[in-house]
Amino acid sequence: MTDSSNEAFADKAEGAVQEGVGKLKDAAGGLTGDLGLQAEGKADEIAGVARQEFADLYEEGESRIEQAVLFIQDRPLVSVGIAACIGLLLGLLVLPWRKAKA
């Protein structure tokens, strides 16, 4: 596993722990009638879920970048052609059209 994969795994684990702690706080607040503790628990739970989802998205994005790098390494000329076409299209869209003077 790479360092970034380890970081993503650690973020997922921390998110799961935070979600679990949030559920416990929510339950404790519900049992004792402490609305503040219950709200804090719900916030922790949502933050934990968000952290896990972000770690998943980060891993997916990292995998896409690795695929792009492998494509560029395997097919450098095709990659340059694609980049040139994209650059040309962006140039045509961004630069204003000039009328030729007769």
TrEMBL record:
It holds the Pfam family DUF883_C. InterPro entries: CsbD, DUF883_C, YjbJ_sf. Residues 71-94 form the DUF883 domain. Residues 11-62 form the CsbD-like domain. Keywords: Membrane, Transmembrane, Transmembrane helix. The chain crosses the membrane at residues 77-97. Gene3D superfamilies: YjbJ. Belongs to the UPF0337 (CsbD) family. This is CsbD family protein. The lineage of its organism: Bacteria, Pseudomonadati, Pseudomonadota, Alphaproteobacteria, Acetobacterales.
